[in-house]
Design goal:
It contains four helices and twelve strands; from the N terminus they run E-E-E-E-E-E-H-H-H-E-E-E-E-E-H-E. It is α+β, with helices and mostly antiparallel strands. It has a single domain, classed as Nuclear Transport Factor 2, Chain: A (Roll), CATH 3.10.450. A hairpin with a 5-residue loop joins strand 8 and strand 9. Helix 2 runs antiparallel to helix 3. The longest helix has 15 residues. The chain is globular, with a radius of gyration of 17 Å.
Length: 239
């Protein structure tokens, strides 16, 4: 795993139950909301469960949503590639902010209305993340402080026409107030559901499965051996 460069420590706190960030050789479970799904969870199997929808079996090119709402793309195609693209868009947005209000606003747009706790849970998680990063608990943060996350690879579980569990292997980079940086690798289980004509986040984590064994540096043979498949960035942009 990647080492720290110029930062004393990087122990991100809560982004979602069951999400795993790997810092050096340390795996940290991230906890969000009231769920304890990672406690006593069964080890994850690499092979997807039998599916009722055709699932990609190799690298995929992400697609854009048809429009932009509150700074994120929405209205993704009703396909598995559309679900993966939406999951990538929403995780990149919510895991790349240190603003609790923005995280909540993203989930008000991207979250399944059936999970009304998502916006407040994500906002709370960002407050905890700031604390773990030794940042002030509220208010704007002066440059160059940033936390940037990008989904690099994916796996699928329980593929169905209107619902799929998307696993995302991510890179995150934290820049502290002195310009020092640290990088982490994350595993984000994202439950996606087709609701009212778009893919929505039903849950991040909270799967009852332990995916820590799938943590790896993206775009390496080690990641490929664990079943990870490449994501190719979308070109152009949403209209």
């Amino acid at each position: 795993m990647r080492n720290f460069i110029g930062a004393k420590r990087l122990f991100p706190g809560a982004i979602a139950a069951g999400v795993v960030l790997v810092i050096g050789a340390i795996a940290v479970f991230l906890i969000c909301g009231h769920d304890d799904g990672h406690v006593g969870a069964k080890p994850a199997h690499q092979a997807p469960a039998p599916s009722s929808a055709a699932a990609p079996s190799g690298p995929i090119s992400l697609v854009h949503g048809a429009r932009v709402a509150d700074g994120i793309e929405v209205s993704f195609p009703h396909t598995i590639v559309g679900a993966v693209s939406a999951a990538s868009e929403y995780v990149d947005a919510t895991a790349s902010t240190l603003d609790p209000d923005y995280a909540a606003s993203v989930m008000r747009v991207a979250g399944d209305p059936g999970n009304a706790a998502l916006p407040s849970s994500l906002a709370t998680s960002i407050v905890k993340l700031r604390s773990e990063l030794q940042l002030r608990s509220d208010g704007p943060l002066a440059p160059p402080v940033t936390f940037q996350t990008t989904a690099q690879m994916y796996q699928l579980r329980n593929v169905a026409v209107d619902e799929v569990l998307v696993l995302l292997l991510t890179d995150s980079t934290f820049v502290n107030a002195h310009g020092g940086t640290a990088q982490t690798t994350g595993v984000f289980p994202v439950q996606m559901r087709w609701v009212a004509g778009d893919w929505k986040v039903a849950a991040i984590g909270r799967t009852g499965q332990d995916y820590s064994g799938l943590a790896a540096t993206p775009d390496t043979q080690a990641a490929v051996k664990l079943g990870w498949l490449a994501l190719v960035a979308a070109t152009g942009g949403a209209s």
